[in-house]
Amino acid sequence: MATIKPTITLTANASGATKSPGPLSMALSLSATDSLTVDRVHSETKVLGTAVVAVLDGSALLATDSDAGTPGTHGGFLYLKNSSSTDLDIYCAFAADGDTSELGSNDDADRHFTLKQNEFAWVPWDYTGDFIARGEAADCLLEYWLFNRSI
To answer: pTM of the entire structure?
Structure first.
């Protein structure tokens, strides 16, 4: 077993600041840190085009764990980053096995979030279903790191 210590820090000036004004009437300073026990790490950079692809197969990940998908023990922590060299979006979703939703249409209820160039996300995931994604155009780069929660 190993330990990782993710930290998120959000800071912003007050909206009235003359240099780099923030979104609130007061300055913002928020920080959270956790200590997580993990046992496996998988990392990859996927080149995405406009077709939806299954980036991670939750069923296959579940099969490597011995907890039979018990909530709170099962799953891991997923770091995602749009590493595209140009201003291209990546559309992301957690979907049922085999789901090939469009993800890129304006009102797609299956799309969970969009990563713009250099944006990132940190998401706990129970390996239920699949993690799917598609690019806005050819040559979108999705970098991910999956840290498996220790049992």
So the answer is: 0.90
